[in-house]
Amino acid sequence: MSARSWISPVAERLRTANPYVVDSALAALVLFAVSLQWIFPDEGDDRLTWQGWLIGAATAVPLVWRRRAPFATACAVSVATPAQAVYHAPPPDVMYGGIVVLYTMAALGRPWHRRLMLVGWLLGVSLTMMHKEDPQPFEYAFHLLSVVCAYGFGVLARVQRAYTAELEDRARRLERERAADTARAIAQERSRIARDMHDVLAHAVSLMVVQAEAGPVVVRSDPARAEAAFDAIATAGRDAMAQLRRILGVLKDPQAGGGPWRLPQPGVAELPGLVRQVAESTGLRVELRTCGTPRPLPPDTEVAAFRVVQEALTNTVKHAYAASAIVELDWAEDQLTLTVTDDGRGPTAGHGGHGLIGIRERAAACGGSAHTGRGPEGGFRVVVRLPATLDRQAALG
Question: Domain 270-397 belongs to what architecture?
Answer without folding.
Answer: 2-Layer Sandwich (3.30)
